[in-house]
Design goal:
The chain is of the alpha+beta class. It contains 14 helices and 11 strands. It has helices at about 1-10, 30-35, 50, 55-70, 90-95, 105-115, 185, 190-205, 225-240, 270-280, 300-330, 345, 350-360, 370-375; strands at about 75-80, 85, 120-130, 130-140, 145-150, 150-155, 160, 165-170, 215, 255-260, 335-340. It has a 3-stranded antiparallel sheet. The termini are far apart. It comes from Blastomonas natatoria.
Amino acid sequence: MGWFTDWLRGGAEQRSIEDPKYNLSESPEELLRLLGIAETQNALPIVSIEAALGVPAVFSIVAFLSRTLAALPLPTFEAGENGARVDDPVAQLLSYAPNEGETSYGWRRWHWQQVFTGGRGLAWIERIGRRPVAIWPMDPALTTIRRVNGERIYTHSGRDYPAGDVIDTPFMLKRDGLGSYSPIAKINKAISLAIAMESFAGGFFLGGGVPPLALEGPLPSGADAYRRAQNDIQRAIDLAKKSNSNIFGMPPGHNLKAVGIDPSKGQMVEARAFQIIEISRGWQMPPVFVQDLSKGTFSNTEQQDLWLAKHLIMQWAKAFEDELTLKLYGWQNPTRRVRHNLDGLQRGAFKERSEALARAIQTGQLTPNEARALEQRAPMDGGDQLYVQQATVPLVMAGAGIGHNGGPSIDDNEGDPGDN
């Protein structure tokens, strides 16, 4: 192989026997392109946000998480563990419309899309005095962040905004506390590999399932004659494809040999399935929510549902709640707090939920009004008392007669003097 290495390095010059004027070393790219390694020699495809969203797993994760978090109820409560729900102007901005041009759901969905793609979601709080009157989205790609005298300053469209007027939700902050990591940028190799495999599979099937081929046999003399023969064979293959014919003629003494690895031998299906799991790890997404049920069972699918609510949605909801409370109500003992309602994600099917609430009421763990509050229903008169089933008795009395509760017998005839 030494001559081949020298040839690639340009250290040796070899000429065609048929045509001494044709120097093989003049165009090594032709051989690299023939072997299929010219364009992909040292790099996977470059991944941008647009390119990454072309991968079904990435698109599914971003769409699922952004829509789920945007659809959560976002009410405002009085400060404290059991604070009552309030309906102030800030609550209207968060629950109904942050500004005159978009709904709360639309704004929050866009905000989370920026978090799960570019790594940061931003919004500016418009105020009259100290009172918030509107919330406007800010494009993170057009915003720069710097620190001035210890304070963060956001610059957007030539205007500076203090940190107290900007809702900032980073995916993961960098060491300086200003920049943010993009999940797409950090797992770009996993996404690039998925794109490369999809492109290879697309090219393979677009070519009718025909892999790259090498022509074996007596070759014509001269570079031009060789190119003409190669073009003739390529035209024969293309005509066979267009005519849906599985047969095309070959020159006598020639045959075609496949070059490269067969997709099945390269474990293409298994590798593409693994990339779904690998990409899901970038967002800590349970595989079942990107439609990967290859290892799903009834029990572990349900556990992944709980895992999503407890360890993913709840954490992002907490980060957003704290940011909104800080920026909308102030940092010194705020009298009100913003809090998502996650009960809808955790309560399961209606039948199971109803049975669980009924059992909690009957065993004295919840009052009826507490159970109604979990269902977002108004309290009822007399519903603040704890109840317990009256039929519960100690085990030592389980064999007692009907009606016997430790008191006098209920048999009116027992001990009647007239019976003697």
